[in-house]
Amino acid sequence: MGTKITWEEMQDALLYLMNFVVDDEEEEDDIIGYFNYRSVRAYKPRAAERKIDMLSNKIKMMGDARLVYQDMDYKNKLNEIRREKYAAKDQVDLQFERKLIAVYKRYTMDLIEMRRKAKLALLNFRYRLVLEVLDEAKVKLHNARKGEKSKALMRKLMISGILALRDPNPVMRVRSKNLETLSGLIPVLKKELLNLHQIECNLRIDRETFLNANSSSLRIYTSDFKCFAEISLANHFDQCVKFYFREITRQLVPPDIKLDLDVHCLKVTIMKVRKARPGDKTRYIIRAGKLYC
């Protein structure tokens, strides 16, 4: 305060400072009264300087208050924007999860249906293939019924029937057209039973009663005609097919075979993306492709 200022300079300073506190009516009246009370002769520099210091401090406090208020208003608006952003993001994530669940359900149902159709097509293909093989085998067996292999097979079936009945005096009934062929097998059959099984068998053919055309090739009865064994190449063939059906299918169609079926389905690949910020939720990306069955 060593430097003195003039009344005009002090008046300009007070008017300048008064512009910052015009919203305070009491302070403005005080300044105006100060101007009216003081004249140029009654001017006191120290009182005016204290007045200037007081007004300067008040202006500084008001400025700080305004900055604090502006900073709070800015933070509130920023928080509101963040809340709106997170709310919109949550809504998008919820919609995405719902769509993702729907896509997975549709994908699973389509995949199950296509796998079922592919499996059914494989089974039908295998069944048709087995039927073709069996039909071809039946034709070959029918064509070879008068050959030596067919006679040897029939002889083995007759031996199995006799062993099953366990009767030393069995009786055999045949069709009339097969009488001569099967009669020629009896001597060889008795020798095989005696050499291989040490069984003496007095097998005879019933020449009075013959089997009809719808029955099997032959029947071997016990001596009292209470039990019999029905022997036929067709029945034996069917039993072999039932017993070895799984092995036949494995030979024709291996389990690991892949048919060239025009079946495809949508494969959804979900890629998990790392969080960008600690507060952000996990993002996902959907990529579609083809999966061949």
From TrEMBL:
Any GO molecular function: proton-transporting ATPase activity, rotational mechanism
Keyword field contains Ion transport: yes
Record key words, sorted: Ion transport, Transport
InterPro entries (UniProt xref): ATPase_E_C (IPR038495), ATPase_V1_Esu (IPR002842)
A GO CC term attached to the entry: proton-transporting two-sector ATPase complex, catalytic domain
Annotated family: Belongs to the V-ATPase E subunit family.
Name the record gives this protein: Putative vacuolar h+-atpase v1 sector subunit e
Lineage: Eukaryota, Metazoa, Ecdysozoa, Arthropoda, Hexapoda
